[in-house]
Amino acid sequence: MILSTDDVSTSVLAEKLRSYFSGETYTSSQYTPTLSAAKKMLQDYRPSGYARTRNQVDGNVTYLNPYVTWGVFTLREVFETVKPKSNGQDLEKFASELGWKAYFRECFLALGDRVYTSLEPYKYPTTSKQDFLPDEISNAETGIEAVDSIVRELKTTGYSHNHKRMWFAAYLVHYANVEWTHGESFFYHYLLDGEPGPNALSWQWVASTFSGKPYYFNGQNMAKNNHPGWEGTLLDDSYENLNAKYFAGQADGGYAKRPQEQPTATGEAPFPELVRAVKSKPLVVLHAERLSDEAEVLKAAKDAPVVVMLDGARFKKEHPSFMRLYFALSLATDVVKVLRERGRDAELVLAESPAELASYAKTKGCESVATADSWHPGTWLFLKLLDEQVSVSVVEDAPFVKVRASLRSFSSFWNKAERQVWQR
Q1: What is the model's pTM?
Q2: 256-285 per-position pLDDT tens digit
Q3: pLDDT band at 4 (very low <50, low <70, confident <90, very high)
Q4: Cβ neighbours of residue 161 closer than 8 Å, sequence gap 6 or more
Q5: Do β-strands 405-406 and 264-265 pair in parallel, antiparallel, or remain unpaired?
Q6: Rounded to the nearest 5°, which phi and psi values hold at 371?
Q7: C-beta atoms surrounding 408 within 10 Å
Q8: Torsional class of 189: left (φ above 0), alpha (ψ -120 to 50), beta (otherwise)
Q9: CB count, 10 Å around CB of 309?
Q10: Interhelix angle 180-190/162-170, nearest 10 degrees
């Protein structure tokens, strides 16, 4: 489906793309989905005090993650932009947090859809957890303002501070005794920066199904990080009491061992044969993981027509909130507009299949496809299938890291990756 740039308005999309989203038709009150807004935010950011304040809900964090998720910036581009503005502990911690994103992306490439099922057993005695998300939680009506405010912010802005995500996940899984998968899908539905790897595996890390012990918290931890509304609730308790009540005294590890077999980062693309020189008469494809006017593939095929493509089949499968869909389509539309202003032939396409994109390439008189690399295994599979119909060349952007390492834990990955980050 070719979309006119005039289609990307709330009323038109609500009518035209009803089958691609679910819920009410409102947009984020916090983020502007344009390249210029994203670039200004990155250029203006200074990481002073980042290491000390990043866990505080009002700390000096970047708010850039939605733009990174949809590929306006690569992790390397963010790091290289921020690097001259800081040094020492703040920059080291900043690099480490980017490393977490890289780690979870590598996990997703290695595990695929397995990230949506428990990879390991819970590390504490647990009865069967509720296999649904209670309405009072999803409607922000638990009576615990510290929890309800997180839900309200998520549903109106598409944003949630990382610490708030951890608190909510721990509350839902451990204290409300709900299976983690329901919280994961609830957050992914709204998050503008939702990615399968970081979202699902962060929930598993909290739950203890991808870690050595559960993550849990109390009200004092919220107070320390400037989040109110826990006083006089079940969160207003000591760690000792919470451990005894919800974890049978096993919250600190040792109840169950982690499996020996763990995923591994290979340091290679899923289909390395696609990473090759651009061929004749290419169509440049900017997919959902690289909605950028600065992708290397644009330089490698500088005179070729461009299609900014979003995967319609993926949207139908995920059924995101309108807010999330609108953000992605608005960014994609802005890329098209910027490229047209530079004289490029550019269009916005919502493709349902590789065959549909191959057909589009032929209508443009193109004999091959040149595209950006991706952290999403679904995109790589799409490109592999597309290559059976029209030759595909993947042009890689400068990586944040490219390393062969165990993904058993972040530390096992970062021990090998960190030096590469600084040396590149």
Answers
A1: 0.96
A2: 989 888 899 999 999 999 999 999 999 999
A3: low
A4: 57, 61
A5: antiparallel
A6: -145, 170
A7: 17
A8: alpha
A9: 24
A10: 150
Angle at alpha carbon of residue 187, lines to 120 and 14, rounded to 5°: 140
Which one-letter DSSP state was computed for residue 128? P
Beta strands at 368-372 and 282-286: parallel, antiparallel or unpaired: parallel
Quote the longest CA-to-CA distance of the chain.
Answer: 69
Helix/strand/coil for 259: coil
> Which residue bears the tokens 């290559």?
387
Q: How many residues are there in the chain?
A: 424
The CA distance from 59 to 14, in Å, is 36
Render pLDDT for 341-399 as a digit per residue (tens, 0 to 9). 999 999 999 999 999 999 999 999 999 999 999 999 999 999 999 999 999 999 999 99
Q: What is the pLDDT of residues 140-194, one digit of tens each?
A: 999 999 999 999 999 999 999 999 999 999 999 999 999 999 999 999 999 999 9
Q: Are 86 and 60 in contact (CB under 8 A)?
A: no
Judge contact between 407 and 266, C-beta under 8 A.
no
Q: Which two tokens stand for residue 306?
A: 């461009």
Which one-letter amino acid corresponds to residue 318? E
Three-state SS sequence of 186-198? HHHHHCCCCCHHH
> 106, 80, 55: which is closest to 226 by C-alpha?
55
Could you read off the pLDDT of 46-74 as tens digits, one per residue?
Answer: 999 999 999 999 999 999 999 999 999 99
pLDDT in tens, 199-208: 999 999 999 9
Residue 291, token pair as written in the block: 């909605």
Q: Assess contact for 201 and 408: CB atoms under 8 A.
A: no
Enter the tokens of residue 323.
């807010």
Question: Cα–Cα distance between 20 and 14 in angstroms, integer?
Answer: 9
Phi, psi of 269 (to 5 degrees): -70, 150
Question: What residues have CB less than 8 Å from 356, skipping those under 6 apart?
Answer: none
